[in-house]
Amino acid sequence: MAKPAISILTPSKGMEHHLPGLIKNIDTQIGPHDEVILYFDGERPTNKFLSFLVGYPYVRYIIGETNIGPAAGRNLLAREARNPILRFQDADDQLAPYSLDQARTLINQLDEWHILVGGQLMYRNRVLSRIGIRKESDKKAMIDALARQNTMVVNVCYFNAESFNTVGGFDENIRFEEDWDLWLRYLNKFGDEAFTLTDRLFGIYNTYGEDDKHKLHIRADVRKSNREYIAEKHQIKTET
User: Fold this and answer.
1) pLDDT tens across 79-126, in order?
2) Rg, Å, the chain Cα set
3) What letter would DSSP give residue 2?
4) What is the DSSP code string of 3-16?
């Protein structure tokens, strides 16, 4: 059985300096029919970066004239994708070693699937600080936790493109880095079968310690308003 191809989809807003490292990381495991699509959200790539892309013919890019935000950017990329498997990849994180081929192999063994969820390596200031492993036996606990808070990130997931389109993609009213709504809509549509868990590592999540504190402080109110919006939308009771 032929292994399915994967579309790796990355929106970028002020993140061009991370993209060469990400593309070099992907290049170590890219398949013959895989593709990478970049979306520049309200900005244009530099000539230096475009020259860099010449060496990576499987990468294409879209330039957005206005700032539409990460949710809308991911949806736009999904519409452009040619392959049956989608991976939404943040520009400043990376794929774990062998992630693409491990996902392909596992998906080929499944009769039906919607989201394949793996584990991640976490780096702080480029030093390994934690390894997060998920197993199929953890699924009930993960789903129970999703009823209260967001416990996942897209960088550890592979999406069935058909299922993603069925649930309607990301909610574009959410303008900042909150995927909790998407997981809840998958649960509403597919129940416990929405997620297939594996102990394979799929992502490398980079945090930058002191450099990030200012950004996190600025974004705290936005995170809170996103979560309040999602809780109201899904009729989730939150603590007062």
Assistant:
1) 999 999 999 999 999 999 999 999 999 999 999 999 999 999 988 777
2) 17
3) P
4) PPPEEEEEEESS-G
